[in-house]
Amino acid sequence: MPLTIDNPELEKLVDEIATLTGKSKVEVIRRALLERRAILHKAPANDDTPAQKKARIMKFLGEEVWPHVSEDILGRGISQEEQDEILGYGLDGI
Hints:
By secondary structure, the protein is mainly α. The protein has four helices and no strands. Helix 1 packs across helix 2 (25-42).
């Protein structure tokens, strides 16, 4: 089934990407759709409950973030002085 593109902005984008990549317009569109499909298949469900969202975040932190934090920092809170320094409080002229 043929596909007709009747959108000047889309035509311009396809032309630009085809020129940059050296690919045909059809290949540019095919690859864009394949990449988008892959993203959608990997995307978490938007209808997560708050508990599911929290569980997903905690899993991410436990697997991807906390293993890279040194033991002396992990679990330690941040002092008021450190917070002020990060926010730039107490600096001359502020």
